Amino acid sequence: MLYQIFIDPFAQMVDMPDFLIQVVWEGFVAGILYALIALGFVLIFKASGVFNFAQGIMVVFAGLTLVGLHEAGVPAFLALILAIGVMALLAVAVERFVMRPLVNQPEIILLMSTIGMTYFLIGFGEFVFGGEPKQMITEELGLPTGSTAFEIGEQGLVILQHIDIAAAVIAIIMVASLALFFNKTRIGRALRAVADDHQAAQSVGISLNQIWAIVWFAAGIVALATGIMWGARSDVSFALEIVALKALPVLILGGFTSIPGAIVGGLIIGIGEKIGEIYWGPLVGGGIESWLAYMIALVFLLFRPQGLFGERIIERV
């Protein structure tokens, strides 16, 4: 048994390096998409100090909006623009009817409000778009399809899906853009000020209403990009909300306020769960991919609860 746990998986990696590369690539792509979902959580948390439980359903809702508009006869790129407009309207509605009435309330109240938003968007989305899975308009948006195969050694073969490569490139661009936005722009600095202290930010003339609308819109754009990429790899359905919960261990690893942490945490979870499922999963009957991420997060909570890039909070009494 010890041989099967500690030696055999590594022997398989050495014997079949091409298969190991394929597994790592699949985990890398999954990790990039987890990181995109986590980015939406980070944006909201940095601006309001509350965990946005609705980010997962926002991914689904944005994807369904895009596909639903196209099915109604709207050209693909016009549907994309209109979907961005819908996420902007959602951001304004959240600020006006949820965030503004609850300003300076305890964080648990804001958390409960995002849970309420989740179920509202689920019901509204099913009412408007139905509950059936929908196919993402990948080709209509100009996203690449097909695959490229690379030979590794004499008989090894690694296959890369073009949509996975596009997803990785788009995610990297979005992460870099958001990092620059937060660190180099006036609005980004205002967002960080609001996250540190609402009342202090208001005292120096920063509008909470404007900042919250902007950050929810940014989270909506991230949700739309994530919905497109996840939908291109599978169908767009409400089951994606469950996938979005993988952002929780990603945030625990990377830190709730760190954009670089979201990408690093996503890669750790994505690659870790793929390798665990392939090489150690058969020892327990498979299926560990669904819970391994949470076990990794639990270990981090025990030894570094602020995450790899999170800020250590020290209270002096």
UniProtKB/TrEMBL annotation:
Major place of residence: membrane
Q: Where are the transmembrane segments?
A: 20-43, 50-70, 76-97, 109-129, 159-182, 211-230, 250-271, 283-303
The listed locations are: Cell membrane
Q: Give the bilayer topology.
A: Multi-pass membrane protein
Instruction: Report keywords, A-Z.
Output: Amino-acid transport, Cell membrane, Membrane, Transmembrane, Transmembrane helix, Transport
Might you name a Gene Ontology BP term for this protein? Answer: amino acid transport
GO (cellular component) term, any one: plasma membrane
MF term (GO), any:
transmembrane transporter activity
Q: Which PANTHER family match?
A: ABC TRANSPORTER PERMEASE PROTEIN, BRANCHED-CHAIN AMINO ACID TRANSPORT SYSTEM PERMEASE PROTEIN LIVH
Q: What family does the Swiss-Prot or TrEMBL record give for this protein?
A: Belongs to the binding-protein-dependent transport system permease family. LivHM subfamily.
Annotated protein name in UniProt: Branched-chain amino acid ABC transporter permease
Q: Which organism is it from?
A: Aquibium oceanicum
